[in-house]
Amino acid sequence: MRKPLVPVVSAGDTRQSLEALRDYLADALDHTDSPRDQAPLAARLAAVLEKLDDMKKGGDDDSDGLFGAAPAVGSSAPGAGS
Question: What is the Cα–Cα distance from 82 to 65, expressed in whole angstroms?
Answer without folding.
Answer: 29
